[in-house]
Amino acid sequence: MARVIGVDLPSNKRMEIALTYIYGIGRTSALKVCKDLGLDPGLKARDLTEEQITTLATHIQKEYT
Questions:
Q1: What pLDDT shows up at residue 35?
Q2: How far apart are CA 62 and CA 40, in angstroms?
Q3: Whole-Å CA distances, 4 to 44, 60
Q4: Residue 10 — φ and ψ, nearest 5°?
Q5: Could you give the 3-state DSSP secondary structure of residue 14?
């Protein structure tokens, strides 16, 4: 299970849905994050690499308060 900024992303959900579990990120913002990082919105959270998780956490902390 991927853990991003203190939130466990559900491993069986697509990234566009899994990111909405983070407070302040809705569906539109989740799609924007995926586009900015070059992630496939259809990618399951369990398929993220450690590097992608780190990049994702850094981007969210930088761009969203």
A1: 93
A2: 21
A3: 14, 9
A4: -65, 125
A5: strand
Residue carrying the six token digits 């991003």: 4
Beta bridge partners of 8: 3
Report which residue type is found at 60: I
Q: Give the tens place of pLDDT for each residue, 11-64.
A: 899 999 999 999 989 999 999 999 999 999 999 988 989 999 999 999 999 988
H helix count then E strand count, the chain = 3, 2
Alpha helical stretches, state H, the chain: 15-18, 27-37, 50-63
Would you state the pLDDT for residue 27? 93
Pick the closest to residue 46 from 2, 16, 5, 6 (CA basis).
2
Angle separating helix axes 27-37 and 50-63, nearest 10 degrees: 120
pTM: 0.85
